[in-house]
Specification:
This protein is an alpha/beta fold and 317 residues long. The protein has 11 helices and 13 strands. Helix 5 packs across helix 6.
Length: 317
Amino acid sequence: MTLLRIEDLRVYFNARGRIVKANDGVDLEIEETEILGLIGETGCGKSILGRAIMGLLSENVEIGGRIIYKGENLLELCEARMRQIRGKEIGMMLQNPSTSLNPVLTVGEQIAEVYRYHEGVGKEEAKKKAADMLKLVGMDPKRMDEYPHQFSGGMKQRVMIAIGLALNPRILIADEPTTGLDSSMKKQILDLMSGLIKSRDVSMLLITHDLEVAKGVCNRIAVMYAGELLEIAPAEKLLSEPKHPYTQDLLDSLPRMGLNPIPGESPSLSSPPAGCRFHPRCRCRSDKCSEKHPDMIGIEAETYVRCFLYKNDKSKG
Ligand SMILES: Nc1ncnc2c1ncn2[C@@H]1O[C@H](COP(=O)(O)OP(=O)(O)OP(=O)(O)O)[C@@H](O)[C@H]1O
Ligand SMILES: [Mg+2]
């Protein structure tokens, strides 16, 4: 069952006269209890997609399309209604815990604040609930009176998980939850997150530019390039039989594959290449690719790709 449906999402920034198309026609569903990975090179629009769902975008932005959650289009809701949904229905772990945690509040206070604000509970009860959350993420509740700077990167990330899941949301959007952690810590955090997600029947949108991270935990993976999706498939299939040349190159660029960076640069989001946005860097391009913009097409069960190399089975978007 689909829990949240993004239809033709467009997020355009006006940056000193230039229109930056950070998301340009994104269609994506988050299913009940799935872990959906969103991957792609830096600057392609992953965080913007997460922020659009949460209604956390700046003023100088034009948003089009629909984000449907429980029958409501989140893009049309007033701020007061959005505040009820944020945290309670859809939790978020923002990119970079050092800037998202408040340096002058103890971690206990920051978790307790969520309960006081959303559930209107008293100070003592909020504190008790915060301690329970810390226990849940594997931390000693005795440390709740400490400040963020007293914690390691991994511990801060645990606090972020506690805040993200505090109100028992249906969906958790986790933006780069393992950045800056070493590989054993990465694994611990991912195991903790996926365990909690499963035991609480939560869905997760896992945003990462690290394919190794997406690999271990995701059910499905969506690949983003220059503001649009190029491929969506079940994780195992995407990793073993990537369809889009960009996905293939992205997999080849992994360190364990010998680190072959994809030649060329990500295109400008204010004047992306005509036709397929990836064509200037693509090994498989033909004349058509610079002329026509490929549609996202369904080629196999649950597998969608935006590339002229494939013939459509059923058209999607
Ligand atoms: N307020 C803004 N005004 C203009 N452009 C913006 C604004 N915010 C973001 N962008 C642009 O939107 C694009 C997408 O940004 P986004 O943060 O979503 O990238 P990302 O895929 O999350 O990258 P990373 O992997 O580095 O986190 C970037 O090119 C960025 O420069
Ligand atoms: Mg980002």
